[in-house]
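Project outcomes to date are best conveyed with an example. Our students and postdoctoral researchers have been running inverse folding experiments weekly, and each run begins with a structure described purely in tokens. The record below, which covers 313 residues, was selected by the lab manager from last quarter's runs and is presented without edits.
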């Protein structure tokens, strides 16, 4: 299957018609993605425009309008968190600009999020009205603590570093206090980049490492099987050399090791040529010398002595 990992995607995520400052009547928000890169772009227009037109906005406009205020990132994460159990369907997610009523803030917002029927991983209420009321105002503080409770529940359920954890952690950091602290803004950017990489890479990497582990296990099994086969051949060659020595007498035992290996190789290839081959070529004299004549010398001597005792009896 052809991968679209490197394909650049420009997605219109919000299209807001408004009566804003300086004659701005339309605000469009785009999500840009290519490879491990994921950015947001916000474009202001003086006229109200249809979505079909907005989707054809040139690349240089999106490039000039790359956002640095994190609002779109947080609204994207809040919308994704809404797909979990932690935010009810009635929750409203978006961004605010221009003149605002008292108590409202510019940037990302999450409203109608309180739902006391939400349960934690153990089935108990995630939070209560009394708990949130003790936190006081502004409302952002209530939402920040609610997000903190969501993050803790995800951790308690073994979900730290999961996609849901990243979403909740970003929301928690953004709504911790107003205005947002520079270090919190930096952390949100890092968390969002990690989330994007996780979404794009983790599935393929998990499959790759699973395949790699399977191949390593197969190689270990293959190595063990090869080792057992070699040991059986060595045992067979020891017995075969004992037979040769008993038949030929002292001549074989007094011969140099290289001559012994040559005699053993000749007999082994005569009786079982198919067993002593590697890649279609017969084993060399060196194999018989190193693996049998030298390495199993003590076994050979003991078996010859035992055979000779039996013969005398």
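After processing, the design step wrote out the following sequence:
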């Amino acid at each position: 299957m052809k991968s679209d990992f490197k394909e650049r995607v420009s997605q219109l995520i919000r299209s807001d018609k408004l009566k804003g400052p300086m004659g701005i009547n339309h605000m469009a928000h785009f999500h840009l993605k290519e490879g491990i890169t994921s950015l947001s772009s916000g474009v202001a227009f003086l006229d109200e425009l249809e979505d079909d037109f907005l989707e054809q906005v040139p690349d240089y406009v999106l490039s000039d309008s790359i956002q640095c205020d994190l609002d779109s990132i947080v609204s994207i994460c809040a919308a994704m968190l809404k797909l979990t159990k932690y935010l009810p369907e009635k929750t409203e997610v978006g961004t605010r600009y221009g003149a605002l009523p008292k108590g409202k803030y510019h940037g990302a917002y999450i409203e109608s999020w309180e739902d006391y029927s939400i349960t934690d991983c153990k089935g108990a209420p995630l939070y209560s009205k009394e708990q949130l009321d003790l936190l006081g105002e502004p409302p952002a503080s209530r939402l920040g603590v609610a997000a903190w409770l969501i993050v803790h529940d995800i951790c308690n359920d073994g979900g730290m570093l999961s996609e849901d954890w990243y979403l909740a952690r970003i929301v928690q950091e953004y709504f911790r206090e107003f205005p947002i602290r520079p270090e919190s803004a930096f952390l949100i950017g890092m968390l969002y980049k990690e989330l994007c990489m996780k979404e794009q890479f983790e599935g393929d990497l998990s499959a790759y490492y699973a395949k790699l582990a399977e191949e390593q296990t197969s190689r270990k099994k293959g190595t063990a099987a090869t080792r057992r086969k070699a040991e059986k051949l060595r045992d067979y060659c020891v017995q075969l050399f004992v037979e040769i020595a008993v038949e030929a007498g002292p001549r074989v035992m007094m011969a140099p090791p290289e001559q012994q290996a040559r005699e053993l190789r000749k007999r082994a290839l005569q009786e079982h040529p198919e067993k002593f081959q590697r890649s279609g070529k017969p084993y060399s004299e060196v194999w018989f010398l190193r693996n049998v004549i030298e390495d199993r010398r003590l076994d050979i001597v003991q078996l010859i002595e035992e055979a000779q005792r039996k013969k005398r009896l």
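The chain has eleven helices and seven strands. The mean pLDDT is 83. The training component of this project remains on track.
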